[in-house]
Amino acid sequence: MKKLASLTLSLFLLAGTAFADTPRDSEAQAAKPAKPAKKAATNAVKKPDAVALQLEELRQALQAQQAQLQALKEELAKRDRQIDEAREAAAAANARATDASTKATEASAKATEAINAEPAVAAAAVGAATAPISTRVDKVEKDLTASKKD
Q: Whole-angstrom Cα distance, residue 55 to residue 63?
């Protein structure tokens, strides 16, 4: 069925172009043969110029698009490098944070161990840390005057 329809359509298309090409008034065409030939020649000259102009415009547009595409590729490569650098920096920071966390845990464990092992030493350390500031200032002043005398 489809083949029959396509063949029929093809036949009508061919017949239609054949009827469209046949002249209606052979006398009217015989009276004016020179003018269409001149127009055809003029159009033939204009068409290559127009085609060449369009072709040049298309070339320029293609070059502009290629330049834009190259710029976008370079920008993408730059962003990829930045992303890679940021990932490396994040990995390094994560490694440092892990090391710091491990050291803090170890220090906390040692402090807890020291407090549990010797309460007197821990109390002295806490007392020294909470001593009044005025006694510390007095000690620094005495050290300063002693160093001036020397």
A: 12
Distance between first and last Cα of the chain: 121
Q: What are phi and psi of 25, to 5 degrees?
A: -120, 105
Query: What size, in residues, is the chain?
Result: 150
The pTM of this model reads 0.39
pLDDT in tens, 90-127: 999 999 999 888 888 888 888 777 767 665 555 655 55
Neighbours of 125 (CB within 10 A): 14
Where helices occur in the chain by DSSP H, the ranges are 2-21, 26-31, 34-117, 119-129, 133-149
